[in-house]
Structures are given as structure tokens and as C-alpha cells.
Amino acid sequence: MDGFEKNEGVILVAATNFPENLDEALRRPGRFDRIVPVRLPDVSDCVKIFEYCLDKLPSRSADIDCEQLARLTVGLSPASLSMIVKHAGLIARKQGVSMVCAEHLREAIKVVRIGDVSVAEKALDTDEVRRVGVHEAGHGIVAALLGAGVLEELTVLPRGGALGMALITKPQDKLLYRRSDLEKELMVLLGGRIAELLMFGEASSGAAQDLQEASRISLEMVSRLSFGSQGNLCSLAALPRENAGRQLDGVIEPANGLLNEVNERCVDLLSGINRFCAMLQPR
């Protein structure tokens, strides 16, 4: 930045997750003028990172499947993957064992991704536990029926802010998403709420986070990807940031229409499965 020889051998590097927010003056020639995008690791990258980190452990069992661990952690940074392995070692030591096994790593993944098991479980009564179980089963069953993911684990133990969890992994990495792919994601998100409606006649506040994420995806589909039923080709991403928010009224209605359309398909999917209702009946 200061010429050819004054501080030769010194390299100045900066990192940000929001390059679009940088002052243009910082990116002028002679300053931070070379941009090197660093993406998050995909499944194959995660496998190699886990193998590297696991090799540093004093002892590990033979039941550890790095490919399964990679599927469970796609979207996490290398630092998070390293933290998972370290936390698995802590879990093993707390249990009084020296060898890290697959179960320790699975627990560490859940802690990093969602949070520790919460004492809130003591406040749940039997009916609430059953409702949470039905809700999470709805997510898992819809994912399995649509081929939208693999249900790795389902639990009603509260973690972080969640009262239960359906741990679903994607069958493969994707760089491009079709409308049908995103509609399946919406159906999986809505599956928990619909399962509650079918079993109990009404939904609960447990679907709040699912609705928020489904709304985010549907707004993206309508406002940027032209995946709405109206087929509008104009993308709000082309507008200046200060003006984009003013156009939201025009996309909320079609986004809600898309959600209602997908919701009805998900209702038909679950209500048409007799085994679904029979499986969840109390015994």
C-alpha cells in the first residue's frame, strides 16, 4: 500500500462477511483492490477438515463416519468444525472416557448448531411433549416423502430456544435451486405445523421459527427469483437498497399466496397417509 520497497515483505490482509457495505475508498487501486472470495466448505471439504481435526485426537473409535458428520455440518465454517471436534473431546472427558466416539461428535454438533440441552424440559407436561414430538415428526416425514433430506435424528429434548428437533440433512450439495427444490424446503418447514393441525385440530406457537424461515424463502422466491405464481420478472435486488424496502407491499401478497399454495399441498400429502396418523396415536 505504500509503494514498492518501503515495507517490502509485509502483506496486509483484511476479512469481512459484508463486502457490499465497504466504503468504495477502501477498494480503490493501491488499497484493498484484490478481492479473494472464500466460500464455506461443501460436503467433501468438510470430510477432509474432520479427518484433519480427528487425527489430532489422542484416541478415537472406529465407528466415526466423517461423511455423515460432513452432511450434518454443511454450512458451518472450518472454525466451527474444529470446535465440534474439540467439544466432542470435552464431552468424552466429562463421561470419564479417553476415546472419542461417534456419539460424542453427534452431541457436539447439536450443541454447536442448536445449543445445550435446556432445563426448560422440566416445564413441559406430557401433552406438550407429545405435541413437540408430533411437530418434529411432521418435518421428518415430509422430508422423507419428498426426498428433500435424510432424517438423521428426532428428539423432544429442548435445546437452545427449540423445544425439539428434527435433524435433517440434504442428500447432496446444490449450487443451483429450482422452484421445485425450494417448494420442497417450504413443505418441510410447514410440515410440523400441519402435523399439529391434523393431530390436535390447532397449531401452537412452536411453529413460529418455521413460519419465519418459510416467509424468508418465499419472499426471496418472489422478489428475486421470479418463482412466484404471477411470474414477475422484475427483481427487487436491482433497486437501490434505500428504495427496495418501499416495494415490499407488492411482494408480500404473492409470497403469502405461494405459501398458501404449498401449505395446501403439504396438507394433502400428510392427510392422505393413514399410517402417519396411526403412528402418532397414543398407546
Automatic annotation (TrEMBL):
Domain of life assignment: Bacteria
Residue stretches making up the ATPase AAA-type core domain: 1-39
Entry keyword set: ATP-binding, Hydrolase, Metalloprotease, Nucleotide-binding, Protease
Residue span, Peptidase M41 domain: 124-232
Gene3D superfamilies: 1.10.8.60, P-loop containing nucleotide triphosphate hydrolases (3.40.50.300), Peptidase M41 (1.20.58.760)
Pfam families referenced in this protein's UniProt entry, alphabetically: AAA, Peptidase_M41
Protein's GO biological process: proteolysis
GO MF annotation: an example: ATP hydrolysis activity
PROSITE patterns: AAA (PS00674)
Family membership noted in the UniProt record: Belongs to the AAA ATPase family.
Protein name per Swiss-Prot or TrEMBL: ATP-dependent metalloprotease FtsH
Gene source species: Caballeronia calidae
